[in-house]
Amino acid sequence: MPLLADVAQGRDNNFNLIRFVAATAVLVSHAWPIGLGIGTQQPLKALTGHTLGGIAVFVFFAASGFFIAASFSRSRSSERFLLARTMRLFPGLVVSLLLVGLVMGPLVSDLAPGAYFTSPETFTFLLRNAALALPQYTLPGVFEANPYPTVEGSIWTLIHEVACYMLIFMAGVTGLLWRRGAMTLVLLAYAVLWILPDIFDLHVPGRLAATRELSLPFVMGTALWIWRDRVVLSLWGIAGLCALAWAGYGTLAGFPLLMAALTYGMFWCAYVPGGAIRSFNRLGDYSYGMYIYAFPLQGLAVWLAGGGAMDPWVNIALALPMTLICAVASWHLVERPALAFAHTARIARPKTARPAPERGPDQDLTQART
User: Fold this and answer.
1) Greatest Cα-to-Cα distance within the chain, rounded to the nearest angstrom
2) Are 196 and 202 in contact (CB under 8 A)?
3) Alpha carbon distance 153, 139 (integer Å)
4) Confidence grade of residue 326 (pLDDT, cut at 50, 70, 90)
5) 3-class SS at 202?
6) Degrees, nearest 5: CA angle 69-70-73
7) How far is residue 211's CA from residue 132's CA, in Å, rounded to a whole number?
8) Is the Cβ–Cβ distance between 79 and 90 less than 8 Å?
9) Which residue in 256, 292, 264, 275 sits closest to 63, CA to CA?
């Protein structure tokens, strides 16, 4: 049974495949409300209390917690870390928003081109969604007859991802990230703060509640990075955590146990199975492109069919090829060049030295996605 630290080195793993499957799962899950309307029951909701798309998003955040911590650790400066995160998130997003808002939008809008391009809503769509803080999901006259009359839907998670990045940034610049004992105390404090609203039935505002929920798998991924030289990857471990999650379903411990089982199981799947499955890495990391293009293209599939109700499987069959084409183009033409720029750009040497990391296992955990 391998230690996580022994196998979590370099890029020889299944994370590209896992993220691709997760992004596809988001598309599949959204096919139900996009094709049949708001309120339609999505896959896995009745069984787990979470949609298939929600489970997939948790997978993304758990992986990010591990690799963003590793990213700060290997960054030569906090400035380079911020540049890398910016180049990973924003170029692909901005290009997708321009294509959706300025190319697809006027072609399918019920408004004449002049009215479309002079509508303030067209440009607030671009600005607000690029800024992440106040997403706008509609465009003037676009998809208004569809069962789910919005253009964007998945990008709401990105602001919460940035918030989680900032947790790592703060831990890094204060030196806590390399001090295992201090980080353990920080994680314990996080766990206490996380559980308090459930224990005392405290109201957490909507957006903060979303950050709270999504940060849990992220923090668990970070904890696995911190303790990677002590974590054994085992099928017995997966079985035990799944049993605990099943036993805790419907209790205060239910969601944390589900996230623990999901996070640990994902890392086993990422590092233990080998052989031909690793050849997927040759294709590139198409998951982010899949994630940001799927929702508008699924709406486009409904619009092309006349705007009425659409069988979810038909929506998947129509939208998946279009989404994959856009994701491949996004990776090769936008995302990978942006990451290359972040890697080679000159950044002024910081005035203060970063704290030296504690001795530990190899930290070369470079990942294309993060």
Assistant:
1) 64
2) yes
3) 12
4) very high
5) coil
6) 90
7) 14
8) no
9) 264
Give which of 189, 195, 186, 194 is closest to 226, Cα–Cα.
186
Q: Phi and psi for 156 in degrees, rounded to 5?
A: -60, -25
Evaluate if residue 267 carries a pLDDT over 50: yes
**DSSP string covering 310-364, please?**
--HHHHHHHHHHHHHHHHHHHIIIIIHHHHHHHHH---PPPSSPPPPPPS-S---
pTM (2 d.p.) = 0.92
Q: Which one-letter amino acid corresponds to residue 198?
A: D
Question: Looking at the predicted structure, is the pLDDT value of residue 359 above 70?
Answer: no
How many CB atoms neighbour CB 286 within 10 A?
24
User: What is the DSSP-derived secondary structure letter of residue 154?
Assistant: G
| Helix, strand, coil percentages, rounded to 5, for the chain | 70, 0, 30
DSSP assignment of 259-284 equals HHHHHHHHHHHHHS--GGGGGGGGG-
